Amino acid sequence: MRILFITSTRLGDAVLSTGLLDVLLVRYPQARFTIACGPVAAGLFEAMPRRERTIVVTKRKYDLHWLALWRACVGIRWDLCVDLRGSAVTLFLAARRRAIMRGGRRPGARIAHLGQVLGLSPPPLPVMWTSAADRARAAAMLPDGPFWLALAPTANWAGKVWPAERFVALARALKEQWPGMRPVILYGPGEGERLMAAPVLEALPDAVDAGGGFALPQVAALLARCGGFVGNDSGLMHLSAAVGTPTLGLFGPSRMSEYGPVGRCALGIAAPGPEGSAPIAGLEVAPVVEAALALLERGAAVRGGREGAA
């Protein structure tokens, strides 16, 4: 059995779609999977069981990337094609069954819309696959002992970025309550991401620099070793929630009702004002500290107590 799964170019959307793949892996234990996604998201699926191939869909003028995808898939008879991009590609492939996500932006949580594609309510939680090597590297970098707190101070546009000095104030306030805490600073590849994270790293000399040069499964393995995560609305936020780390997402003009973190222990906090237009600078440190402490306490209770706290 062969399944084609077309998912997002954006990392956060692709992470949210992994729950559907997890369902299909269980439902069809003999199936082999081909994943079609954008370059940024491709690494998500490196350790996925029974993945036969990843087709990287790079945007081209005049939507020619869809033609390239069709050419890559047309010689195969598919048992199931799942298209979360709502393209016409699968209509021109030999397929026994198709599940196509229709429509543009709709009100409500994105995760619920994804679940509807396969008729799943409630929708499945996102997952993340890592290898033994990924987990071993993460354990060497973040050994047992400290309470590792992941901070993600970057995002793909300035409107989502909570000021760096507030991340620093947050880390210091949390360390007063959790003396065994050490921050882990995560950010994406590229000079722009590094520059956004630099003020936080400089102000927190005990922080571990875990940004820029890691593959997505390695980042996921690092996040899984953290006792908590606080970060901007980003792919890293969704990745943290997917691995089960207690995750607090920070929202300004982006829509928390649509893209809040989804996981076993995840919540968002938004700047005051109308959703979709509230500046993230309106989100003060005090309510974030309060929400983070409550989330960390909840996560510690699940894990059986404070790890590394004095």
Automatic annotation (TrEMBL):
Biological classification of the source: Bacteria, Pseudomonadati, Pseudomonadota, Alphaproteobacteria, Acetobacterales
GO BP of this protein: lipopolysaccharide core region biosynthetic process
Keyword terms of this UniProt record: Glycosyltransferase, Transferase
Database matches in Pfam families: Glyco_transf_9
Protein name as annotated: Glycosyltransferase family 9 protein
PANTHER family assigned to the protein according to its UniProt record, in alphabetical order: TETRAACYLDISACCHARIDE 4'-KINASE-RELATED (PTHR30160)
GO MF terms, alphabetically ordered: ADP-heptose-lipopolysaccharide heptosyltransferase activity
GO annotations of cellular component type: cytosol
Domain of life of the source: Bacteria
Keyword Ubl conjugation: no
CDD domains hit by this protein: GT9_LPS_heptosyltransferase (cd03789)
Keyword presence, Manganese: no
InterPro entries listed in its UniProt record: Glyco_trans_9, LPS_LOS_Heptosyltrfase
